[in-house]
Structure formats: structure tokens, C-alpha cells
Amino acid sequence: MTSLHADEAFLGHYQLSHDPFAPRVPGFKFFPAQRKPVLGQLHHLARYSQLLLVVTGPQGSGKTLLRQALVASTNKQSVQSVVVSARGAGDSAGVLRQVAQALDIAQAEIGAILKQVVQLALTGQEVYLLVDDAEQLDESALEALMALGAGAPEGRPHVFLFGESSLIAQLDALQLEEERFHVIELQPYTEEETREYLDQRLEGAGRGIELFTADQISDIHESSDGWPGNINQVARDAMIEAMIASRSAVKRPSMGFNMPKKHVLAISAVVVVAVAAAWLMPGRSKAPTTGAPANEQAQLPLGQGSSNGGAPAVEFAGNTQPMPLPLVGNSQPVMRKPLAEAAGGITEGDDGVPVAGSSATPPTVTTIAPPAGVPAGPAPTPAAKPTPAPTQVAIAKPAPVPAPAAKPAPAPAKPAVAAAAKPVEKPAEKPVVAAKTAGGTWYAGQAPGNYVVQILGTSSEATAQNFVKEQGGEYRYFKKVLNGKPLYVITYGSFANRDAAVTAIKALPAKVQAGKPWPRSVASVQQELATAR
Fold first, then answer.
1. Distance CA 237, CA 230 (A)
2. Which CATH class is domain 440-532?
3. Which residues pair with 455 in a beta bridge?
4. Domain with CATH 3.40.50.300 in the chain
């Protein structure tokens, strides 16, 4: 499902040279929309400003990519870049140790580091100190970086912090007496920029934006909120789901027997009726044998049997040519269907709707075998056929040797007329109840401004149910429609803002985090639920 990574099947289906939405791809090109101006601003401020530079944005906003572009675009002969990660080493000791190792200094102290920076400045080389995941720095680490950024009269490193928006509050808490840092907040892409970003990613893998429709691009932009990391995840999920849907839609090979479906189902129904009649026949041997044996018939109410050279025959409404019954000689080829469907006598089209001209009620078989000696009554008058008429079946056995003339063969009894005239009752139809979208009520009751964490999406509702049952707690799922196919999306929790949702992601189990969950607004979920109705 959505946890799949690009494999040979995925690449082969779309004819891609590599996964276009992987974090590291061959021949990667920096997407300039809204990020190139920020990159130029960082270079300018590093040259002419003494302030510590802070770049903020939510997870997936492209902070790390911007940091990589900054390092790649500097002059390696005049700038030495030192990259530090605050993940797992957010105190001053951990930060200073990483800086000292990068500058080949034995002592991880502020004084020793500044002395080395001054030595490099005398040789015409500057030092860029770039910190990833800076929101994880504690107060001691921020104060140490402030001291390094202030530097010495002879030289100072240029300090860049890349972190989430909570970093701004941490810096404000230091209560600095003067302005010591400058903040640049990254902005999400517009829908047009999202389209251009997708096009550039796909082009690098040998394809183009034609793999997505305009509606799909709009859905990707809305679901990702325009952040590039989220765009990568949502676009890959959409491609994988489309691949699975297209493969499941491939028709099975034909058996080489092409007959209209309604005819095949009608013949199947006849087979069932014939089997039922054959099953009922042995019971007739229990009829009294006194006197001349009467003709035994199995016939449908309101129907008239038609013979075909003494062989049992079936007659369809609107068709004057009888067809020999299967299992009584001259059997016809039959396309197999589930026996329960054929026994119900319901002929369905591809969408489950009864086909015109077919019977929606199962045929009723009544056995008429009056005992000997009952006075013969008037012959029953055939009732008019309703339109459309149900399938009529008449099965007649050859008459036995006639009895002596003194005892004429009895005619059908009057009670049989009443039984034959009784109309066939249609089975009560169950009312159709519209199924509610999974989890739709809960999502509809949440505030549109809240956020949930999207865990994954799957085309199997059983998979979604098992995942939610296994994880429990605040895990839920809802149903949406993607490319005409159902998609079951699993989410976690409900949070007042995006930052709270991002914080919750870091506390999820490692197994869940492996699927790269991301925050999304409740409003976007509610809109998808409205579209799926």
C-alpha cells in the first residue's frame, strides 16, 4: 500500500529510471520556487550581517534541502562549512564537540574554536556553522552558539539555525538585550508551484507531468498543504494506488464461449428448475395406484406446458421457439455462476441491476396428482399471462396404459385450479440503506481548524481495520475515492494546531513513523468525505 517503496514493479509500470520522489535522487535539481530567493538572502546576510540567521518551517518544508543547497553553492576555497545535527546532541557539550571535530581541534571549548576561526580568517577562509534540527537545542546550546556568532574582533563564524517554528520561542526566552538573530520563515508552494515541482521531479526520472491529471494535482496540493516533503509522499501514494487499481482492473481471459449474459443466467436458472423437478419426481410414486393412473405434471402457476416431440421444453416470455431442457437430452452449454445466484432466479447485469426481460422471482413448482376416484371437474381455464411473464416450465410423463373403459381417467381436481390460479408472491425486498462512510461521523464533528496525523492509506478496508484494531487508542480511518477507487486513510489523534500534530508524530512508535506520517487539516479531510458521498 502506501508504505511501499519504489521497486521494480513500480518503476516498470510507469517506465521511470528511478523513484522521482525519493529524498536522494540521481541528478537532483534544486527547485527554485520560493527557495532560491531565500538562498540568495542567506548568502547576502552572511556576507554583510553580524546576526545569527534562523530558517524556520514545519516538517517537510525543505529546511534540510535548503541547508544542503547553501553548502553546495558556497565557494569551497573561501568557505569551510561545518554541519552540526542537534538530534540526540542538543546540549552545549554535544554541539561544541561536533564543531571541534569538524575543525580538527582537540579542546571542545568556545575559546579554542574561536581561535581556530581567527586562524582560518587570516588565510582568507570563512567558517559557516550550520545546525540542523535546531528546535532540539536546549538553552545552554543556544547560548554557546550565540557566543560563537558574536566571535572575536579578528574573526567570527557565520551561524545558521534550521528548525521548526518553536525555535523562535526558545530564542525569545533568552531575553537578549539587543537584536542578535534574524528569522526567515519558509512558505508553502502555491498550486501552480506544486505542479511545476511535480513536473521537475518526474522529468528527472524520465517522465513528465502527464502522469497526473489536473484533479490529481489539485488533490495532491490540498492534501500536502503545499509543503514539498508532503508533496513527495502524497504523490508517490497516488501513483502506487493508481498502479494497483489499474492492475486489478485487468479482465480475466475469456473462455472462448461468448453468449449474452442474460441468456447464460436464464439457462442456469432452467438447470436449477430441472434439478428441482427431478428431485420432486420420486415422491410421486406414493400416489394411490387404484384405478387408472393419471397423468402426472409439474407445472408453474399461470402457465401452460408446451411439448417438443414428447421431450420436456422451456419457453421464455417473448420467445415462441421452445428450447430443450438440459439434463433431459440435447443439453445446452452452460456458463457456470454461483449456484445461489442461479437458484434465486435473478438475472443481473454488470452492476447488479436486474436485466430487462428477466424474472426477478424464483419459479414455483407445484405437483398435481389427484387420487383415483375423484370426480372430474371442468378443465381449468388458462389464466392470462402478465407482462413480462415468469419462466414457464411444463414437464409431462408419458401416459401409462389406459384403464378399462368403465373407469375413465379422472380430470385434475378443482383444488388444483385454485392452486394454479394463485399468483406468485414476490419475495420481500430488503430496504437499501446507504452505508455511512467509515469514521465520517467523528471527522465531521471535529473543528475544521484542527489537525490530524495521516498515517497511511490503503485500498483494503480490512487492512485499515486491522491496523486500527492493532494500534487502538486515537487511531481512526475514513474512506475517500481516488481515481474512482476506494481508499481507506488511517489518521491519528486530533490537535489544535499543526505544531501540536508535528510534536505528536515524534512520539509515535518507530513502526508507525517508518511510514512517514504527516499532519493535515481536518478541513481537508471533511472536504474529501463530502466528495466521496
1. 11
2. alpha beta
3. none
4. 36-185
